[in-house]
Amino acid sequence: MAPALAGCGSLTGGYEPDGLVLHSQLGGSTPGAPAFAAAVDTFRERHPGTPVKVLSNADDLQQVYETSKLAGKEADIVLVNLYDKSLAWTEVGATVPVNAHMKRWGLRDRVLQGPLREWTDGEGRLRGFPYLRTNWPVAFNTTLLERAGVDGIPTTVDALLSAAKKLRRKGITPVTIGGNDWSGQKLLLQIMQTYLRPAEAKEVMRTGDFSGSRGARRGIELFVELRRGGVFADSAQGLTSDLMTTQISTQKAAIASMLSSAMGKVPRSAAEHITVGGWPIPDDAVHEKPTIMRANASLGMWISPNGEQKIDRVERFIRFMYSEETVSRFVHGGRDMALRTDQFSTEYPLVAAGQKLTDNDVSEAVTPDIYVPAAATQPLIQATGVAFSPRSDARKVRTALEKAYRSAGA
């Protein structure tokens, strides 16, 4: 344990018996980081008797928190996504269930039903206080589509294949995607669901039985058809989500399936040419309209065993974060909220456009984050590169995905 702790400078002084320690994923250039920093400053001003210390980590937060928990020096409140390792935290006692606190503090009605449902595990334990959620719509650069002679945004697979050919003739990348990371994994699993009802989609993602489901097989075959039809960027298997965002922002690509937080990074010079919608579907899809995903299990506030010992201070901070004043900071900072609010961002028009999509515009596919077993998450992302590789047929894609589950013991 000593060498592990020595390598984690962020743990130094992480335990403050007389203060409140927050361990947050909202740091650096992360969308929402300025809103969080401003909120913490305001809280400090209003509660000078409650010293607040903030520890920041990005992708390695979960590992750092688990290490600090083993040392008994974990933060009081952890602000991180419900994803991968954190799926098991409440079950193993790394964090505490918050059902009773949510009820006693009268905050349940502040939360949308989707996030409440997804933050509750199979044993009925509410794992944390939902805070942020994420829309995952599709950005269409209408100016580039028009330049290629495409009439309107494609809403069907046939229209998408046709648009891809026209865009390529003009030297424009049709669909940019991070085929080498989580963004490619999400789009692959979204397309796989073309012929799957939600219950079956969840079961396939839990078990990794992509061959045993006729709907999953057909969805993967459709994915391969789109790839062979030139829909995705050349060498998509080597691209990342950051490169995808860059290509949309510089108007080098016409279409991208993007997190709303990534859309918040698109400059106005490009955003004014973009219409937000859903992923095109074939006529025989189980969905009625083009699909998007909504990640209800995005960032929330978890209470640690140390935080349970300071529950009065924890309550004070969580109430402050749930206030409409603080929520407004995040909305206008370009984030989607898991909480009820009538506000929309004026500074981030693409984020607001995604928030305004309704059942009249799009159908909702299942977001895989809480259904893919934690041990299979990273192997599945690595297998996604096989799916975007030019020579992979549908069987090879299924084999790679199923091998990812087996290698993780899932």
TrEMBL record:
Designated name of the protein: ABC transporter substrate-binding protein
InterPro entries referenced in this protein's UniProt entry, alphabetically: Bact_solute-bd_prot1 (IPR050490), SBP (IPR006059)
